[in-house]
Design goal:
By secondary structure, the chain is an alpha+beta fold. The chain is about 15% helix and about 35% strand. The chain folds into two domains: about 10-120, Alpha-Beta Complex (Nucleoside Triphosphate Pyrophosphohydrolase); about 150-275, Nucleoside Triphosphate Pyrophosphohydrolase, CATH 3.90.79. It has helices spanning about 95-100, 100-120, 190-205, 265-275; strands spanning about 10, 25-30, 35, 45, 60-65, 70-75, 85-90, 130, 135-140, 145-150, 150-160, 165-170, 180-185, 205-220, 225-235, 245-250. Strands 1, 2, 3, 4, 5, 6 and 7 form a seven-stranded mixed sheet that branches. The radius of gyration is 22 Å and the shape is globular. The protein binds zinc ion. The site of zinc ion has 8 residues, from loops.
């Protein structure tokens, strides 16, 4: 795997160190947009206090240290204007500008903001929750119910038959775009079983030799994509007609439109093209 680790420059922590008075990094969100500086490098706002740029946050979360400096995520109220020299941009489009490790950290910040926003009250009894002091969790002071940060694992698989790769057209995508077989993990199954079940449900075939390829956090809203390669075993393609409207075996020379290079789907496609040119 070619993913740059989130932990290259970042150290996670739950409680701020009172002795650390260095300027702070701020991952500031307005819905799905993040505030960045209008500069070529060092795009993340780097200041001691958020009030310095006249922003009044709804909520702030401590994330740990970035290059030894405290870093925080921030939720803003809708309608907030960007301070001078800064701009709000859709986080999804910031991969190239931020670089991979900072993009992944921004993705974590985005997930924490949304999790904090969506877990202000206990899901069991409705009491206001409190932050756990020891881990990233919210606790209900009334009934003790604990909510950890939410993650939804999903699998994506490159299925190969006689050097060809299986690609499917999803109902949701418009135009002539095909993707790999993917789906969410269900309770009680292993991730390899998810691969088998999803492939059977969506295209009606059996797969074998399922091998782990790599993983990618995907914070829109809270997925963890787990990628596999697999070989065709048996059965004829029969699409479910609900999620998948069409599926075909493609050769490397005649592939449909490719996913963005940052996505794990793109990496699986690159693996396929290199292995079966
Ligand atoms: Zn409760």
């Amino acid at each position: 795997m070619f993913r740059k680790s989130i932990y290259k420059k970042y150290t996670p922590a739950i409680t701020p160190d009172k002795e650390n008075n260095k300027p702070k990094y701020w991952f500031i969100f307005l819905a799905s947009e993040m505030l960045i500086k209008n500069k070529k490098h060092d795009k993340i706002p780097f200041i001691s206090n958020i009030e310095e740029i006249n922003l009044s946050p709804v909520r702030i979360q401590y994330l740990g240290l970035l290059k030894g400096n405290p870093c925080y995520s921030v939720e803003l109220e809708s309608g907030t204007d960007a301070p001078e020299g800064m701009v709000f941009k859709d986080l999804k489009l910031l991969y190239d500008e931020l670089g991979e490790d900072i993009f992944l950290l921004a993705g974590k910040a985005f997930q924490i903001v949304n999790w904090d926003k969506n877990h202000q009250f206990c899901g069991r009894c409705g009491t206001s929750t409190e932050n756990d002091k020891n881990e990233m969790a919210k606790i209900c002071p009334e009934c003790g119910f604990t909510s950890h940060t939410r993650l939804s694992p999903a699998v994506i698989t490159a299925i190969i038959k006689d050097g060809k790769i299986l690609m499917a057209k999803h109902l949701r995508t418009h135009g002539n775009t095909y993707g790999l077989i993917a789906g969410f993990v269900e309770p009680g199954e292993t991730i390899e079983e998810t691969v088998k079940r999803e492939t059977m449900e969506e295209v009606g075939i059996k797969v074998k030799n399922i091998k782990y390829f790599g993983s990618q956090p995907w914070p829109f809203p809270d997925s963890l994509m787990i990628a596999f390669t697999a070989e065709y075993d048996s059965g004829d393609i029969k699409v479910d007609g609900k999620e998948i409207v069409e599926a075909q075996w493609f050769t490397a020379r005649k592939l449909p439109r490719m996913p963005h290079k940052m996505s794990i789907a793109g990496e699986l496609m690159e693996w396929y093209v290199n292995k079966y040119p």
